[in-house]
Structure formats: structure tokens, C-alpha cells
Here is the input.
Amino acid sequence: MPEIRKILVANRGEIALRIMRTAREMGIKTVAIYSEADRNALHVRYADEAVCVGPAPSSESYLKADAIIDVCRQLNVDAIHPGYGFLSENANFSRIVREAGLIFIGPSPESIEIMGSKLAAKAAVAHYNIPMVPGTPSAITNRDEAKAISARIGYPILIKASAGGGGKGMRVVEREADFDEQMDRAVSEALSAFGDGSVFIEKYVTSPRHVEIQVLGDQHGTIIHLFERECSVQRRHQKVVEEAPSAILTPEIREAMGQAAVDVARACGYYGAGTVEFIVDDQLNFYFLEMNTRLQVEHPVTELITGVDLVKQMIYIAEGKPLTIRQDDLRIKGHAVEVRVYAEDPANNFLPDVGTLETYVRPQGNGVRVDDGFEQGMAIPIYYDPMIAKLITYGDSRAEAIQKMIRAIDEYQISGVQTTLPFCRFVMEHDAFRSGQFDTGFVTKYFTPDKLLAATDPNEAELGAILAAWLLNNQKPATHTTGIEVTRQRSNWKTNRLG
Ligand code: ADP
Here is the structure.
């Protein structure tokens, strides 16, 4: 069995650090790659060795497969961990890594290929009796036929890009009269974002909840699941608050979803860590959406409730070791909540914000985990995902984890950029979230920027500015310039509050 002694992490930021920490605990040496924009990044400083692979744009650095493999050759690297994003779900990359005699810490290129296409994934699981949302089983080639199918399943329907990801390439169609227009948009969006214009139709599940199952499979055919994560609080179909376990699953549904997820993984000969995503309706019926063939952003909540280090397991699996955790050994203990701290302005339609972290002080204490890649004084580069950190809290119960989250958010001091923290505090305080009665429509249904007022400390010095910013943006069409002006007005609000 090959032993991994040196890992190159083909990623940046919090996830690169998170992977390197586990590697260090296992006595494995680490190599960081970085772009010119990330010279001083924490992952570069943390690694045993670090190599610059190109200029700031990802296409010239973090996505440069050949340059990355060259670094591996020069530094005697045994294995590559791709993290999430970048090359993590690129079947071709995993193939050339193997061809170069290196270990790819992730599934086979074939599994990535199948699950990378929502339609191929549906076809692969067809024999396993997995519940699926009613819709078209293949790409739409004939519009009249597609309209007839839509009429049969009933509006609203969703047009989805087969190659879609990250919430992109999806269009809700409320009625037949809008069908053609939305279809044109979906196809052109899919083409420009993914280079593949194939789209299909799904019934739009109303009041849907997003519940996903973590799976682990070894190279010997054993596949287990590590229960669910609920990720229903989303903006633009993108997750912002996650938790484990879900507030609504019964043990029976959990068991059935876990089994379905293991079957999905089996359908594509899966090994490594993966996530099977489901949508759950208001009757608790669940339907398979897609499988993500990589470590997920929100994996820490699963680690906290199961006590399993997922990165460690990924490394063992990549070495060819059989899983030592058995399904029956796993229990859910306690509750974990994660909020994503993005450099975005919740008062301005979650527009990404740029700037320098003038103040940056992490919360601490019992039950608080912060996975981040920044320090005070560092700039948030505009080239990459604007996530600053993941803030995760853990408690005996859901209520305790939520209370800890509110405490941790209040301790977090960030100034210089707007962040999603005030929005996340609003979520934690909201009755719908606290009672567990919410769905993916949470933001649309309950959130307007003036709500940030109610969610913050009444002593907050600059509360008025939030409202002013909202009023301003609601009088004029929101532009990026407006966002930056608002940023400057409010830039110290967190500092003032704690100062
Ligand atoms: P992506 O690959 O872009 O993340 P997904 O298929 O995973 O796309 O869907 C992302 C989100 O979009 C889901 O979490 C859910 O909020 C919403 N969604 C997807 N499919 C449906 C559906 N059929 N009905 C209602 N909402 C859906």
C-alpha cells in the first residue's frame, strides 16, 4: 500500500489550511501553491514548502494543472489534495495526476465525470430506486415536447443546466407564457458559464429544504454515510448557513436518506469523501438532486457531530486503506451550526465587497471553531471567492449551538469590509429558524436589510447607517459604486460596537 509522506494542496485560503492541519497531525509534509496575489497568505506560511505557480487570475495559477504537477515532481510530492472549487471536480485533472504517478486524494475520474453532469448522474442511479424530482430524464432538444412535459408535471417548473453548479444556470418558470423566454436565458447562461448548453426540466418543489448526506467510501467497496447536513438558508441558491443534524428529519427518514445516498455512491463506484444532495418537500418526501465528488465547504458540522476527521479519512482512503469506521459505530452527538462569513454586503443585495481587514479578531471559547485564511491587515483579493471564514459552533442541543453562534458572532470583530455576519445573526434570532420551520425561501420571505436593525445590539453605534444604506439603495438602482460608498460609511461599525 502506498504511504503518503508529502501532500501538495492545490487550493488556497481556509480549505488549504484546514487540509494542511490534518496532514501535520498525521506527520505528513505539506506543499502550498500560491498565486502572486497570495504571496503573504496564511496557507503559504503554514506549509512546509510553498511555490508560486503564476499571476493572480485562477486560470493562470490555481487552475494550471501542468504547473502543479511540475511542482510535485520537483518536490517529491506523493499526493495532491484538491480541496473544493478550482480543480477538485475536474475529471481530467484527476486523470493526469494519476498518469503522473501521483495519488489524487479524491474519487476516480470516472466517478467525477458521471456526477459532474446532473443528467448522467440521474441516469447512473436509475437502477437503484432513488426518488427523483419529476422532470425530463435527458437534455431538451424539442421545445414543444418540453412544454408538454412541463404542463403535465405542472408549473412552476425549473430549467436547469446539466453542467450547472454553484446555483448557476437555473431558471424558475411560473407559467407556460414565460417558457420560451426563460428557456433562451437558461441555455445562453449555461453556454457562457459552463460551455455546455444542455438543459433539462424539473418540477419546482415548493417550500423545499436542502438536506445532504455525507458519505465515505474506501477502495474496497465499503461505503458508509455520516448523516445529514441541512443547508436551506441560501441566497441566490447558494448556502450561507448550515447545520447538522437537520431540525426536521426523523430517525426513519434519516436512515432512508442515508441508504439512498450510499446507493448513489455505489452507482458510480465511489470512493473518497462525497456528498449526496437531496431536496425535501413539506411532506418530508426527499428527492435526489446531485452528488458533489469532493470535500464540501460545510464539512465541519459533520466532523463535530460525529467526531470523524473527514480529511484524515480521505487520506487513508487514498492510500488504499480499508475504512475502519463501521456504520453501526456512528452516532450523532450534539448539534453543530456553521455560518459562512463572506465579504458581502447584506444591506446591498449581498454584493461582494472589496477591501482590507482593518480589524480582524476571531471569536474564541468553548464550542467555537473558526476555519479561515486571513489575518488583520490582509486584503480580500478580488480574484477569488469572497469567503473570509467559516464560523462553526457546537453544543449539546440545537438551541445551545444557536446561542453559542450568537455569542460568537458578537465577539467577531471585522472592519474594513462588509460581511454576512449581521445577516447570520438575524437568521439565528429568527423564529422560523429557531423553530426549524424554514425552507430555501427563507431570505426572500423574511429578510429585508432593515431587519439587520432588529438583529443587532440596540447600543450599536451605527445602526442608522444600515437603514440609511438600505433606503439609499432602494431609491436608486443598486450599482457597485453605491455598494462601495455604503461600505465606507459603515466600515467601523463592528469595532465601535465592541470598542
Ligand atoms: P447547483 O449544482 O447549482 O448547486 P443544485 O441542483 O444542487 O444546483 O440546486 C441548488 C439549490 O437550488 C438547491 O439547494 C435548492 O435550493 C434549489 N433547487 C434545486 N432543484 C430544485 C427543485 N427541483 N425545486 C426547488 N428548488 C430546487
